[in-house]
Amino acid sequence: xxxxxxxxxxxxxxxxxxxxxxxxxxxxxxxxxxxxxxxxxxxxxxxxxxxxxxxxxxxxxxxxxxxxxxxxxxxxxxxxxxxxxxxxxxxxxxxxxxxxxxxxxxxxxxxxxxxxxxxxxxxxxxxxxxxxxxxxxxxxxxxxxxxxxxxxxxxxxxxxxxxxxxxxxxxxxxxxxxxxxxxxxxxxxxxxxxxxxxxxxxxxxxxxxxxxxxxxxxxxxxxxxxxxxxxxxxxxxxxxxxxxxxxxxxxxxxxxxxxxxxxxxxxxxxxx
Amino acid sequence: xxxxxxxxxxxxxxxxxxxxxxxxxxxxxxxxxxxxxxxxxxxxxxxxxxxxxxxxxxxxxxxxxxxxxxxxxxxxxxxxxxxxxxxxxxxxxxxxxxxxxxxxxxxxxxxxxxxxxxxxxxxxxxxxxxxxxxxxxxxxxxxxxxxxxxxxxxxxxxxxxxxxxxxxxxxxxxxxxxxxxxxxxxxxxxxxxxxxxxxxxxxxxxxxxxxxxxxxxxxxxxxxxxxxxxxxxxxxxxxxxxxxxxxxxxxxxxxxxxxxxxxxxxxxxxxxxxxxxxxxxxxxxxxxxxxxxxxxx
Amino acid sequence: xxxxxxxxxxxxxxxxxxxxxxxxxxxxxxxxxxxxxxxxxxxxxxxxxxxxxxxxxxxxxxxxxxxxxxxxxxxxxxxxxxxxxxxxxxxxxxxxxxxxxxxxxxxxxxxxxxxxxxxxxxxxxxxxxxxxxxxxxxxxxxxxxxxxxxxxxxxxxxxxxxxxxxxxxxxxxxxxxxxxxxxxxxxxxxxxxxxxxxxxxxxxxxxxxxxxxxxxxxxxxxxxxxxxxxxxxxxxxxxxxxxxxxxxxxxxxxxxxxxxxxxxxxxxxxxxxxxxxxxxxxxxxxxxxxxxxxxxxxxxxxxxxxxxxxxxxxxxxxxx
Lengths: 272, 297, 320
What we know:
The complex is a heterotrimer of chains A (272), B (297) and C (320).
Chain A: E1 16-27, E2 30-41, E3 45-49, H1 56-62, E4 73-81, E5 84-85, H2 93-99, E6 100-103, H3 114-124, H4 131-141, H5 145-148, H6 161-174, E7 179-183, H7 191-204, E8 209-213, H8 217-223, E9 226-234, E10 241-250, H9 251-256, H10 261-267
Parallel strand pairs in A: 3-8, 3-9, 6-7, 7-8
Antiparallel strand pairs in A: 1-2, 1-4, 4-5, 9-10
Chain B: H1 20-55, H2 60-64, H3 78-109, H4 114-128, H5 131-143, H6 155-180, H7 183-191, H8 196-207, H9 209-225, H10 251-259, H11 264-296
Helix pairs in contact in B: 1-11, 3-6, 3-9, 4-6, 5-6, 6-9, 7-8, 9-11, 10-11
Chain C: H1 19-61, E1 71-72, E2 77-78, H2 81-108, H3 116-131, H4 134-160, H5 175-199, H6 203-211, H7 216-245, H8 248-253, H9 271-278, H10 285-319
Antiparallel strand pairs in C: 1-2
């Protein structure tokens, strides 16, 4: 089966940031993704693509232990970050999430003011510097400062969907993580907001490692340096499909000369 | 090949129980656990005492005999058991048709009209009226005026007081249950030319049967344990029930009266009545849960 | 036009709606309107009955009824201060104790702190507590809780007796045991409402909080509780209304004294307990005085319920 391949040809030459070693994630007794090996390079944008149900979001959430919040979800294998297996028994998931931030599919600002949305994370991470300055810097990086500078005291919920999502990105940036995970961050947004977020990502990768899940292949081409293609296939005796990693390479290679036939079929729009 | 040297000095990901945030978390989790324990203690303690103190007296005579005169031993609570059933039945016969009908109006005929909103607010206020006030009201309106054939205290008056108490629950349950029925279902019926009456009685109401039944069972269970509306409407009687228009005994009033008597025999009968009443009410609650679970599977 | 079947005859005999069906339709609608209106009629009747009955006492005692504490059937002098004070103090104190307990329990059974099975068992036990009749709790309070509590109350009196709230020796029934039994009675409703409120906080908000590195309780205090606060406050007010109107258990354990005392260890009274004890045997102006007290109770519970809805409306605007 292709899934047992180690498609790490490119990334092995680069400093890696997160390594997945034989990762299998299950919901209860049902396996969602099986046997994933992958080295995610530092300070690059890595995109996860694939048909729905292939487990790409599940893998993304595994990278900062967000799956802990879902009852019955368990992981086998190792996810190595900074030389440590983040699923080891003695690891504190809170510590992991402070260093690996996340932006979600649906914008989810806290029911607090715009200012507090940013300051909250910084404060709980023990930020001792000038808070006003940090709020401004984060909002600027997320390209939303101009729209919000006059209403920092207003509720984050009063913003439009696209603005809310950029606020959530600013919130993630503010705690200065090493990695930012983005789970289909533009799926609920209009084209103009999407464009703004994509432009911003080119800036952000200078300081952060970014992993983004997207179902929009053009978006993967536009923003990412590396692309991982996931697929799902039915297994004998099992109910439902199990996801696996088909191929992981330069975005260029994935879209122009993929090794696997399934990748070729998917990127040329023959299925999924 | 997997690991490159990190750019920053490595920070441990390990859980550190000494950190202030982890210590506070542990403290609050323990407090929440302690509070949960405190919250379930009363149920356990009450059940244990009711089972022990009341269980002692469970015998055939408890269900077949009248309570003894003050100072005497033995006897049973048969009249109070019958009385509780009679009064609750009267209340149900009044409150269920009125409540279901009112609920149908709210959900099906005028869901957002001003009158329906007015009735909903009124219903919430009625639900908040203290139960003792229901008793005071029925006493003044029915007992003191002797409207039923010149009788004052009566099973009928007690049933009516309980009905006032049940009504808001039944209306709210029906209203909410009907609103949960998918609109497509009634559109389908109306689409083949069914009248509104037929649509409601044959399609909408049956599909909302389970939640309504659950709510009604719970309302009946609650009414069966109520005391305050009965103490000066149905009053109490040490004798067998003599029809709907005479005072009647009930388990809840018996518990109240016998608990504060200085005789041990009466006190034990109060515990025995509590046992029977609690078993009935818990049984009804479990029945309601069963209906819900059975319907959802 | 009528579509004929192959036999040439229309077999759908009811294509033209008969008059009887239309009559049933209209009649049914009218019936439901009448039944729904009954709610308003009953509510109005309750208010008018109590208000009319209270007229005589209102004329004789006026507003000083609210602040005088004598209750003297022999000389027909009545003041409801003892009962009003008892109603307010017992329910507010009960609330003060029950809020943290129920909120802690609600958090414990919603925030994934323990396995699901255990959460469901705790939730079910709290729900079943709500089903235990008030009169049974009263019986239990008289014979079990109060004797257990007495040494502790005795200790309070001996060590804090200089403080007005503990300034009398405990003698069995009294305000303190009544407060505790009220706590037991309002715990289930407050836990249930808080639990529903917490369950309705969107998962995304929790993920957001944990995503920036919150610990569980940072997330609970800063994000989850603030998002649920309006419903929780609504539940607290609803419970306050319940506590003020609660009758049986309180009547059985509060001691029903018409003499005023600041002490929580002394017997006291509430409006509903006074009604339960005296209304059946009262006559003359005493009935009117009791109905005057009942009117006050109605106004209090009504105000609390309205306030509850106002708060829920005001806060939910802010967060949704």
